[in-house]
């Protein structure tokens, strides 16, 4: 059993806002992150798959395939976008929207990646980590 | 003569848009950066002052003072903001706005910092560098 | 279940010395680290909490709260200090002192942080990692 | 129980080639990595040992000893070498050779390190991680 | 005048060998770098152009254009290659070959990039830096 | 003309204290850095030499030679030491001591390195940079 990880980066805007709260409460809880014009980050997405090494290729999965999965399933939708306005899982109708915190980005990336990795023979998605800055990151392992 | 540098980071949104162009031309020239909802970055600002070492303190300038100047003159206005919407030198009336590219951020940071550093005895602003990502940065040295 | 991590840095001095040994034995075992004048490091402290995401905020815990806990419980006591001389768990009376190795710093940081994190609803301290340099780090997960 | 990690770096060449395949198939599967003249990387090897802290030294294991084990068992054989041509586990007779992918490097490093760490009282090898670039790494934990 | 920099990475093999010397002298001078099977690195190439900011775009040069120039002029020829065997300026006939040291890579990258940058209106190539590892780099500024 | 740079790291303790001032004034000016027990850093020293490339070796200077010069002239005296207590240029008799700020470390490293580099044919010391943390660094170029 080997754990193979690939990193990718994307740049996106977001803000934190709970529409069921007043502006005052949003500013009190979320501080500068509540600015509705948005602010942004260079995010790093770290995707880990687990599986056995194929003796024919020496691969758990083909890293070019994994790069393409990450590009197609996550970066095409999130890179150079405003998460609250352009990305379905955070935009929707706002009253039911999920706030695009680092925690929720990790869960959303898992949901986007898991079906594609699941189809790859002998490998499973093991871990998704999202860095908002080098100092802050959230990790989801598919645990309920 | 010593060159003393302090780094700081800020997170901001921006987009690239020339209002005298059509939407098509903006998208052709600026690509994904033309998305009007904005996208964002973790910027790094690197400020270098030059001067002689004060034999009494061992300092060119006090780094706590330099940190406060950077915070007051640049970060208070730029951090967790949308550069095109919240920041005067890039917002103004849009038809005369400066596009918040990395190049223009370096020049704007210089203009914000230079008067304060100029007042410090025996030191001058030598260089301002802005990293948009670890792979892209612009540097301004006050040269015409 | 999400694992949320925040990093912080502190600068401190230390030396390695077992008072029940001769100077020769200390120098033989600890090498240059046995210099009683001390030497120092820029340490990085990485604190991970585990819990469910609150659907109202999108947070496992508020990262500003976590930053303040790290500042109050660890950095206020350790940053810009000499661990062997200024910090209670390593200074005490020397004959019973714990040597401030990276391993012991990780355990001591856990003990300082765990009570505060424990009180936070729905979150628990999952992991504490201390980097002495980018090449050396110790991790404690609360395991006996 | 503490997990103590030490990093080391080495520079090596390699290529990917399955001798039971045609040149066309090798190029199709392995792309630019199939260039038989080889290409190279600055690899980072991250070795984690787990154990209790010795109250006499404050160590899980002596980091100088761990550095020497890594140097003697792995770097002396791999650093500044061509993995496919100079290193026994990847060279052998080519028809039975293991392809030096990041995954197989992690397993091979584990096999080289585990006997030495196993002899150290109260510590065991917990994890070996190999970074081919900062964006790609493989991890082996000794799991079947 | 603004200095705009873009980084790129490539992975390549090389060895150091002066064909007019004996094997003993090559090993004495070049040490482990004289291994004729080669070893390799993840190189970082840092390209700086200088010029005025175009008020219409906010650019010194278009960074997508600069990325394409670097890809076409340098990376297409050097990435995933053996510098001594696959790259014209270091291979040639060996008796006249230039040794692919970091210094010579910086000069060779300058020669490959300068004609394309020179054609860009209002910009000139200012500096080329090549990192062999994070600890070693060479810089060429076009000075005789 | 090529600029060739090598980095090295060292860990040291220091404090800031002007003996002609009262304790109150020292604490007011130097803040937490005035703690007489000291605190410490992982410093990075970056040494740049300038010269022509020797066509026989492809070197400006031999990087192994440069590593040995840095080790012998600087690291042997500064690494794992207390700068105020163990290092001549900062210890001396205290009333005449130079305060070991990052600025003064850069000048002192230049003075230690310059005579050895000066003797190397065709190369001169061009720049010395000292990082106290990744956020703070001082650079000396030998300018009066």
**Main beta-sheet annotation of chain A:** 5 strands, mixed
Q: What fraction, in percent, of the residue positions of chain A are helical?
A: 25-40%
Number of strands of chain A: 5
Q: How many distinct folded domains of chain A?
A: 1
- How big a fraction of the residues of chain A is strand? 25-35%
Q: Name the CATH superfamily assignment of chain A.
A: 6-pyruvoyl tetrahydropterin synthase/QueD
Given the helix and strand composition of chain A, which structural class is it?
A: alpha+beta
What does this structure look like?
Six copies of one chain form a homohexamer. The first copy, chain A, is an alpha+beta fold. Chain A has a single domain, classed as Tetrahydropterin Synthase, Chain A (2-Layer Sandwich). Helix content of chain A is 35%, strand content 31%. Chain A contains five helices and five strands. In chain A, a hairpin with a 2-residue loop joins β4 and β5. In chain A, α2 (63-78) packs across α5 (102-119). The longest helix of chain A has 18 residues, at 102-119. The two termini of chain A are 23 Å apart. Chains in contact: A-B, A-C, A-D, B-E, B-F, C-D, C-F, D-E, E-F. At the A-B interface, β1, β2 and β3 of A face β1, β2 and β3 of B. β1 of chain B pairs antiparallel with β5 of chain F.
């Amino acid at each position: 059993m080997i754990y193979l990880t690939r990193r990718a980066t994307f740049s996106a805007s977001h803000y934190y806002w709970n529409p069921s709260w007043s502006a005052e409460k949003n500013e009190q809880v979320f501080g500068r992150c509540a600015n509705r014009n948005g602010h942004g980050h260079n995010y790093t997405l770290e995707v880990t798959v687990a599986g056995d090494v194929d003796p024919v290729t020496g691969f758990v999965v083909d890293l070019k395939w994994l790069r393409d999965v990450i590009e197609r399933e996550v970066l095409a939708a999130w890179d150079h976008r405003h998460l609250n306005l352009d990305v379905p899982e955070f935009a929707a109708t706002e009253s039911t929207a999920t706030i695009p915190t680092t925690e929720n980005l990790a869960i959303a990336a898992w949901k986007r990646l898991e079906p594609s990795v699941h189809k790859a023979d002998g490998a499973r998605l093991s871990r998704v980590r999202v860095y908002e800055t080098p100092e802050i990151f959230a990790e989801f392992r598919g645990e309920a």
